[in-house]
Write a structure and sequence with these properties.
- The complex is a heterodimer of chains A (119) and B (133).
- With 119 residues, chain A is α/β, with parallel strands linked by helices.
- Chain A has 4 helices and 5 strands, in the order E-E-H-E-H-E-H-E-H.
- Chain A has a 5-stranded mixed beta sheet with strand order 1-2-3-4-5.
- In chain A, helix 1 runs parallel beside helix 2 (57-72).
- The termini of chain A are far apart.
- With 133 residues, chain B is an alpha+beta fold.
- Chain B has a single domain, classed as Histidine kinase-like ATPase, C-terminal domain (Heat Shock Protein 90, 2-Layer Sandwich).
- Chain B starts with a strand and ends with a strand.
- Classes of the chains: A alpha/beta (119), B alpha+beta (133).
Chain lengths: 119, 133
């Protein structure tokens, strides 16, 4: 069954979305991140969307749910790597992803979590 | 230049939204849309096709190149139609518990937007994004 891989990098969970997410895959990701947070007790979760070309209202809502889930479980999500075209589109859509912390790239994401980036 | 029909796709399942986005990506590349216009088109398409799926019970999408410098998407469904079109395009309007920026938001992302709907005849949304001159 297809799934978005969730990797452990030190105290952080890295989720790198490299596929065009269909709705079921996005919903599955929310559950997978919650399970991984419970299992690994990370300092935070970085979700890298640099490979994502389309964040529509559904995907945006799922990303918001993932951030809420992580927060309720005592962790934090930082969304990293948003493409300029995606940011421009979200602003025009009127959806600025409230409640989701963002950072320019993975290194900035680690620093946002108060950690040194690896390497 | 004659308009070219690139493809007609069924919208019957969530996976089909990915197929519609992919077909539009091919068309966007064929006319050379810049990344921002390409992303806006694909995102608008996603909202419109999802609307056809959730409110219209599914439908079809047609992707066309227009005059070699634009991409047109037509999505029609076989649903009950939208009674108040203006209301449906207003932000915050939602009948399916979504974020309520769907169709109105999609309209802001494209250069041309037309919505035809009648009670019992379903809804047809046509959008065009032009290559920047």
């Amino acid at each position: 069954m297809e799934a978005v891989p969730i990797l452990r990098v030190g105290d952080v969970l890295m989720v790198s979305i490299q596929v065009d997410l269909h709705d079921q895959l996005a919903e599955r990701l929310a559950g997978d991140v919650a399970d991984a947070v419970a299992k690994h007790d990370p300092k935070g979760v970085l979700i890298d969307i640099s490979g994502v070309e389309v964040v529509d209202t559904f995907i945006g809502r799922v990303l918001g749910h993932i951030a809420q889930l992580a927060r309720l479980m005592g962790s934090r999500v930082v969304l990293v790597g948003m493409r300029p075209a995606v940011a421009i589109t979200l602003v025009e859509l009127g959806m600025d992803l409230p409640g989701i912390e963002t950072a320019l790239n993975v290194d900035r994401g680690f620093r946002a979590l108060g950690l040194e980036p690896p390497g | 230049m004659r308009d070219e029909v690139e493809s007609t796709l069924a919208i019957a399942h969530h996976h089909d939204l990915v197929r519609v986005r992919r077909a539009l990506g091919v068309a966007a590349d064929a006319v050379g849309l810049d990344p921002v216009r390409r992303t806006k088109l694909l995102t608008a398409a996603s909202e419109i096709a999802r609307n056809a799926l959730t409110h219209g019970g599914g439908g079809e999408a047609e992707v066309e190149l227009v005059e070699g410098r634009g991409v047109r998407l037509r999505v029609w469904d076989h649903g009950r139609g939208i009674e108040d079109v203006e209301e449906a395009l207003r932000d915050g309007f939602s009948t399916a518990g979504s974020m309520g920026v769907g169709l109105g938001g999609a309209r802001r992302l494209v250069d041309e937007f037309a919505l035809e709907s009648g009670k019992g005849t379903g809804t047809c949304v046509t959008v065009i994004v032009w290559k920047r001159p």
